[in-house]
Structures are given as C-alpha cells and as structure tokens.
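ingest -> validate -> predict -> emit
validate: passed (alphabet ok, no gaps, 382 aa)
predict: started
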Amino acid sequence: MKSTFLALSVFFLFVCVFPSQQFGQNRSTQDAPDVTRAGVLISGKVVLDDGTPLPHSAVVQTMCKGQKRIAAHTDSRGRFSFTIGELNSVSEAMGGGFEDASVSAKGGMSVGDTPNVAHNLREWRGCGVLAELEGFTSEVAELMARTGDEGGDIGFVTLHRLAPVHGLTLSPTSAAAPGPAKMALEKAYEQEKNNKWNAAKKSLQKAVQIYPNYAVAWFELGRVQFLQKDREGAIHSFTQSVAIDPKFPSPYLGLMQIASQGQQWKALADVTAKVISLDSAASPEVWFFNGVGNYNLNQLDQAEKSAREGLKLDGGHHFPKLEYLLGIVLEEQKDYSGANEHMQAYLHLISDPREVEGAQKELAEIARLSTTAAPPKPNPKN
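emit:
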C-alpha cells in the first residue's frame, strides 16, 4: 500500500491541494459581469474583529474542495474584488511557460477543469473565501450563502487575532519598517494585482534593500519567486524571513509548499511541525501536510494524529483529503473498518470524477484486504 499512497500523494500535492500558488486577477467593478465570457464578480472587505484597521494589505484566498488559491490582495481599507470562472490563465498573464498543473489553472477561482464557464461556476457553490494576514486567523465566508448564483458583495471576511499564548503575533518588523520600505511593499501588492510580477519582484527587492529586517517583505518576495519557478530564490527569501522573525508563520508555509513539491518528506514533516508548535490551531491543510510527511516516513501514529487533529479543525469539511489520508493510514494499520468509514466519508464529500474513481478503487482494496485479514483488535480511537 505504501507505494500506492506515494503516487497518490504526488497527485494531492500537485493537482488537488497544493496551496497558495495561483494568483487571481482583480477586475474592475464598473461593468456588469458577463457569465459567458468573464465569469462572476465577487467583492467584499476584510476586517479585524476588534475594529482596528488592517496593518497592511491582506491576501484573499478562495477555498474549494481543499484547494486554496490566491484571488486578490486588499487595498488599504481592506476592500477586494475578483472574478469566478474567468478563462484567462495565470500562465497567460505571466507570458506563458507554466506547464505544471499546479500553477497553470485559470485566474480568479475557476474550480472546474473544463473550458465551459457556466459548468465551472456551478462547482463553486460549496466554496468559500478567507483572508491571510500574519498573526491572525480567518473566518471562511461561504460564497453560496453570501451571494447566491449571481455573485456580488459577500460582505465582511473577519480576521481574529491569534492567542498570544502561542507566541504568534504580528511580526514586529512590520511596525519598525521605515516609510519608503512600506511604500515599496504596498506598491508590490498593487503590481501583483495587475499581474506585473517582475515589477512586483523589483519593488520587494527594494523593500528589503531599504530595510533588511522586513520579514513580511522577504516572505512576499519568496512567494513571487516561487510563482515564477525560482525555487532557490524562494528558499532564500523564505529562510531570510524565518531568520528575522522565527514566530512569523507565513514563510514556514512557503517552505512547506517547496518541501511538498519536492517530496522531501522529512523537511515537510519538520516545517509543518514548527507551524503547529507556534499555534496548535494551525489550519487543517498544515495538519494534512504534516500527516503526509509522517506517513511517507512510516511514522503512522503521528500521521494518524495529524489527520485526526486536522479533521477536528475542519468543521465545514473544506478539506476532504484529510478523510482520505486517515483512511489510508488506518488501512496501513490494518484497521479496515476505520479505513472504510473515513474513505466513505471522503467519497461523500467529493465530486471530481477522477477523485471518485480513486476513492472507489481504494474502498474495493480495503474490502479485499478485510476479507483476508484476521479479525482486527478493537481501536479505541474510532
């Protein structure tokens, strides 16, 4: 079973749940959306729960079936907009050259795989919008509940400050940054929104040149470098950010993406463990990747724990791959009843034909193994 899961892990990492790689495009709110061409316009505002203004621009992400994609950055007042279902790809916006499926999806939030925009739009009904800002955790705004089929204003996406007991707060380096460095970072955000990636990289390089201890700017530079497939540059920038502020979680997530892409299981397990040590309420995807890393290191007990912790946090079932992961782990542990339970749960949460076929094959394998195995010992964890 191990070799089968290794192949499926690659599928997860590059096709299904590889997060925060795909930058969407902000569109003008002046024209009514044309569903047949440009998709549906979504707008809203990111706010802090205590009413204070955002310290700087926040990243707005869409999440559907466990896939997280960057759709926009907020302006200085927290406002954002993006389109769902548009056909322009990130690859085209950046001049082509991106053949990897993990970075060549359509702009905005096109969750379907077909060129039929209307079909893609039907798939976003179970999806949500959240924001990313260091030191905060985001509520998920359910798109269907907020907008219906026509799109529009989803209202507020609320951020909550993480508990200081975990030592995870806003990076103090942001407050200490001089004005010109802050202006360079804000300029980079605007350039990213307009798909001017090379210009954004130059602005970020200027920000860290002015203020070398700017952890947020180093992280953002790493993210742009990663999107442009400059792996070594991204590692350097993320590592610089971590060295400057070890309690700032975002660069660890960047390193998590790089480790998962390279199937560096030890590095993946270690970097996700660091994020979890900073905040035990880390996102379900962090627990998932920690579980994947540990599974492939044959540390099954830790992999099981990670999958279960992730499921506890995923009350809205936004990350169904956790069910798959736990099912595979329990199958490896010969707990076929538990494996069947969680694989069935996964099957009920997905609709992609390829994923459904994979789950059905796995259920058939679990059934085959259970008929030939000795009666399992009771598992008190189920």
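Residues 1-30+39-161 form a domain with the Immunoglobulin-like fold (CATH 2.60.40.10).
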